[in-house]
Amino acid sequence: xxxxxxxxxxxxxxxxxxxxxxxxxxxxxxxxxxxxxxxxxxxxxxxxxxxxxxxxxxxxxxxxxxxxxxxxxxxxxxxxxxxxxxxxxxxxxxxxxxxxxxxxxxxxxxxxxxxxxxxxxxxxxxxxxxxxxxxxxxxxxxxxxxxxxxxxxxxxxxxxxxxxxxxxxxxxxxxxxxxxxxxxxxxxxxxxxxxxxxxxxxxxxxxxxxxxxxxxxxxxxxxxxxxxxxxxxxxxxxxxxxxxxxxxxxxxxxxxxxxxxxxxxxxxxxxxxxxxxxxxxxxxxxxxxxxxxxxxxxxxxxxxxxxxxxxxxxxxxxxxxxxxxxxxxxxxxxxxxxxxxxxxxxxxxxxxxxxxxxxxxxxxxxxxxxxxxxxxxxxxxxxxxxxx
Length: 388
Fold this sequence. Notes:
Radius of gyration: 21 Å
Helix content: 25-40%
């Protein structure tokens, strides 16, 4: 679907990442303690550093941190926010929507509706597309969009195809109605035949496995009384994400560049009109391959967000935006093309004009002393359930 809006303006953006950093050179044991091999992987794939959450931190914590920096930095009156939209893959609870928890923690008024969007790596574009419709229709004048994810929580450190890639993050974006015309353009495609290519098989209700049913529960731990192994010999369970790397790569290389070209044609723009192609930070190889196939010069396709923070899924585009804007003044007018792609399978691209935007940059999230541990949460819910 192609669509455009002419009265939606991003007025502020902020990204929060965990303070804990993992350097690829600190994991030499996974590469036979060979620095040469690590250097080769770093040059080829872009592995270097990534940020990961500590126990007790959820995606919403990162999103709230980014939102507070944004709202405080812009001195926003909370009563002037008309809606809260939260894009997430790993909600705090299955129900209710985590947006309600964020709404409470930010102290938003009762008049502010809040809801979740379940979306992965294309989530930022889907989120902006959704809030743009709400603003363009004049239903809302100012919306707080939060995107946050903690993909490292499900990763097996021994899986070198996945573990060095992912990082955690949370981003907050303030979008507002503009009387002046500020055009934005979107192109969203859904290749649902590959819905299973990136999936968590045991999560949700399709399998409907219950812990209390020991027989069913054991099915996700063993297969025919044997340990479940991946083609490369790693032990795994249905709890771990399934990724069909070949199918996802083929989709990425064949669909994404064409999606970008179609968007440029729809907007009647050329690559020379775009200051930066802010791609989802999947990895260096994919970013460069897409940029080249879409006809963009290498210096317009940044990948340093992946190198320094890892692939933080739906936050990777706003993380990249925060990175490229940090050396510019607030008055800079920047036209960027963002493209997110991944589970669904889906590709969503947008062209945004960032003019007179507040950018808090990339801030560190520090685990609060008030954050409850897992044990404290368990005790909390025991008391709640018992009515104490």
